[in-house]
Amino acid sequence: MKKRTPISAIMTTDVITLNHSDNLEIAESLFKKNKIRHIPVVSGDEIIGMLSYTDLLRISFADAIDEEEQDVDTVVYNMFTIEQVMAKNLISVNSNSTIKEVAEVLSKKEFHALPVIDDNKLVGIVTTTDLINYLIEQF
Questions:
Q1: For residue 44, what is the domain's CATH number?
Q2: 68: which DSSP letter?
Q3: Which one of 8, 21, 83, 102 is most buried, counting C-beta atoms within 10 A?
Q4: Is the alpha carbon torsion for 59, 20, 84, 125 positive or negative?
């Protein structure tokens, strides 16, 4: 296993984002359509938060619905904005951070994804799943 491998080697660079003015129905649709669990929330070019699928589950019964179901009871979603539900105090890393450094951050915190920011621009996202897949490849 290479000790100084940068996170850029395993991060997702084709990042799906939400605009802070989008609604939670759009968020749920993106989570299900793309089979992802974390979406950075942006305002213009600035990342202002991270929304996880778990955040949606906390306020809804989305997990009780068939994955193929399109008609979701959206009453609860209309009660909240993305900004009210998303994580706001983000820790980010840059693309030169090592996989080890990122793993240490994720192991000490209660979240499972980090935005990757270079020169104040979102360039990727790295998740615990990315780290696990990297480790599996090493064996």
A1: 3.10.580.10
A2: T
A3: 102
A4: positive
Segments in 45-110 forming alpha helices (H):
53-59, 82-85, 99-108
In the three-class reduction of DSSP (H, G, I as helix; E, B as strand; rest coil), residue 64 is classed as helix
Total-model pTM: 0.86
Between CA 111 and CA 8 the distance in angstroms is: 19
At a CB cut-off of 8 Å and minimum separation 6, what does 11 contact?
A: 95, 116, 124, 125, 126, 130
Can you read off the two tokens belonging to residue 97? 């951070």
pLDDT digits (tens, 9 = 90+) for 25-72: 999 999 999 999 999 999 988 999 999 999 998 887 654 555 555 444
Count of structural domains, the chain: 1
Cα torsion at 52, 53, 55, 58 (round to 10°)? -170
Token pair, residue 115, equals 């935005």
